[in-house]
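$ run holo --ligand "iron/sulfur cluster" --emit tokens
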Amino acid sequence: MKKKIPELIPIRRIHNYVYCPRLMYFQFVENIFVYDSNVVAGEMTHKRVDKPTVTFFSEEIENNSLEKIRSLALESADIGICGVIDLLERNPNDGSWTIYDYKHGSPAKDIHGNDCAKEADIIQIKMYVLLARHHQYNISAAKIYYAETKTSVTVTLGNNENDLLKIISDVKNAASGELPDPLENDNRCLFCSMNSVCLPEESLYWKKQKKITYPISRPPLAENVSGEVLIIHEPQAWISKKGDMIVISVNGNNVSKHPIHLLKSIFIYGAAQLSTQALCCCLTENIQVIFFTPAGKFIGKLDTLSISGLDSRHGQYKIAESESHSVKIAIPMIRAKISNQRVLLQRNCCPKNNDALNLMRGLRKMTTDAQTREELQGIEGKAAAIYFENFSLMLRNDDFAKRFTGRNRRPPLDPVNAMLSLGYSVLSSEIAGICSAVGLDAACGLLHAPRFGRAALALDIMEEFRPLIVDSVVISVINRNAVDLDDFIFLSQGCSLKKSAHHAFWSTYARRMSEELIHPTFGYRMSYRRLIEIQIRQLWRIFRGDCTEYFPIVTR
Ligand code: SF4
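-- output --
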């Protein structure tokens, strides 16, 4: 899709482009920012100089009476750039100015071992000089201050206006085109804040469909690696914001405090209250807030306007309109689901060459020939029927096993079904939240038909994870005797969990989602939550047309 880019390119984005065009694209076009420790440290460095001494139309500038100007915002429609100069200092001898740019890191070294400025930093400060000169500032020198080593490096200013204009034009062209390919086996990726979203090596694998021949040098960390999920069951709970904390209180007493930067999601069951300040904070900090009924039925989630992902959503809608294309992407998901269900049966109850396993193997093979959604769903349904016929064999508590006679829902009729329904509802909501955060439309599915209030894409993505996460959690809760029948409510309209069963389910679910496993393809450790995010980022690339085949997660 042809994009219209802003008329003025921020000079910081030019810095990104010189470092890596793909980084510029993520930040400038897709509006994706990752706050890792380097970015935060960089912002702290700038905070110290980001106190504007004057505004653009200041009288003091007009009167020429200032010795220093901090955070001077300038723009030029003629050159097509804008930026904020950290510091301008007047030379008392001739009245000319020295421009300073502050960097949190350290300088590079030249071949003699002397400090020198990095390439992207040099271009950035030269752009500031160009912009300042355009506004009639007599700039005689430019220096970059590196906070980590507390050293200043002087940048030689030559007559390079044409080179700089060419770079500006290159940035505009790159920004209006497609997402550039990642760098290959390049050290810059090691220091790049966008690594966890860009997934350079993984993207190359998905695109070229060939094994990476070198080790992934730094497994990308999740955007919010230590992100906590806060689960609120208490109907009297009041969720508020105090300073940098989300505070939970019940009947006026504070019961817990959670640093905002560590929170990833808040799940609210029932009638807990959320203050407007906490609500706005969740929206600005991208903390998902998901609402459920007390019994665990998904009601909805707090969401902002998607700020990025136009190309991926556009591609998603186009693919969803084509049944053959959608089925091609959904086949590996269903194959993986059947494989993972088989593995669960094999591990927990069925010996090799068991009839059920053989039948499921046959059905898994048949998925490859499916041409329509209906055919694929038919195969998936048959495999699920065999799987759930044998599900109770995996339970080591007869009270639960005897009551489970197959999958039922709306309402679930026994404790196992009640926990499975709760788990699928929660997992699909989490996945829907990640889809929106990544820039996809969770409501537009490939296999599951779109329907009012249904996160159809999340249901597609969840297929391969159902046995790995929810089914495993339910089996574990029962087999560890973390619940008994007294922890459930049996009514004519179905079965639901009491508070004690919720507690047992949630602690096991939370443990499972943070449990680490080795990625079957990339070979590094990650949590299940991060694994799901990586799969969604893979789909994001397919929808954009960056790669064609979907690689699911299959356990052995
Ligand atoms: S991780 Fe590497 S390829 Fe990706 S944006 Fe950063 S520098 Fe570029």
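-- notes --
The pocket of iron/sulfur cluster is lined by residues 20, 22-23, 182-183, 188-189, 192, 194-195, 198, 200 (CB under 6 Å).
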